Amino acid sequence: MNWQFASAAVKEELGRNPEFPGGVEVKSNPVRTVYRSGGYFIKEDRRKGNRLRREFESAQLLQKLGLPVVESLALGEGDEKSLLVTRAFPGESVGDYYYKTFIRDGADPETFLNEFTAFVRKVLESKIFHPDFHAGNILYRPDTKEFALVDVYGVRKRNFFDRFRMYRMRRIPMELRAILGNGRMIELFRGLQIPHPRRFWHDALRREADYLRKEWPKRKRQILSGYPKFTVREGDMLRAVDPLRRVIPLEEGEVLDIEEGKAEDWFLRLFYARLALVASPLFPEPVAFDCAANILYVKAVKERIPVRDVIDRLRISGIHKL
Length: 322
Prior knowledge:
By secondary structure, this protein is an alpha+beta fold. The protein is 35% helix and 21% strand. The chain has helices spanning 8-14, 51-64, 94-104, 110-124, 167-170, 182-191, 197-225, 263-275, 307-317, and strands at 2-5, 24-29, 32-37, 40-45, 72-77, 82-87, 92-93, 128-129, 138-141, 146-149, 156-157, 231-234, 237-240, 254-255, 285-290, 295-299. The radius of gyration is 22 Å and the shape is globular.
């Protein structure tokens, strides 16, 4: 395997032919595996092409521009696979942190939102284009309040045509909207210096709703089949999985008294509302669906946004059309 190192110091740190004994698998699919060995993450790609080389070069570009990115240390390329070695960042994804701290536990998100806005504004002003810019690809370290980009495949200097693709990057605050009112969301976009923030917010709500409606037939099949991102099947019971991939305990829920034979319909409606990030007492969080007994278990939503904002989002989301 041929190795390329980020610097002479990294080459000395890892050795001419790096080895990573005792690696623990973090995630895997048929073409790619990520595992951790000590203070390093190793991404192994078994496809033809130069995907990991492009990710390595994207990370180098971001470092040159002064943008915080998980440190890419070395690239190994062979006939059957390629390896990318990065240094472990002591944090977690913004998506996981935000859900745990502010949605699930109810902490005040204001300080974090100001920090996040400053970070995102720096990225948007840097004149790079990130085709997969979302909360799961940003790591956050609460003790030092540091952010770092991760999985930066495809990041490049912005070209003329990327100007027409900027919604893909500017939409990132939409992932935080579940507990924020319309006014605070508009302020977020204003803080990012996005032109016409109020118009952008309402347009973004419609775009997100249109995308979810398009994806809904596939999502519905996944939910009912026990796809691990959404549910786990235990006999006749479909158990809901929260955004942290944690099966929600039955004791956290209660039986929802609904019309006989409508439990599955409402189980799907509640999932639709969750994916649309609509927090409303009308659409509590789904916990489980007993397919044989036709019983639906739910838990209450901690509503944090004004009722009129909830109604506005319900209307735009299209839940009433399901």
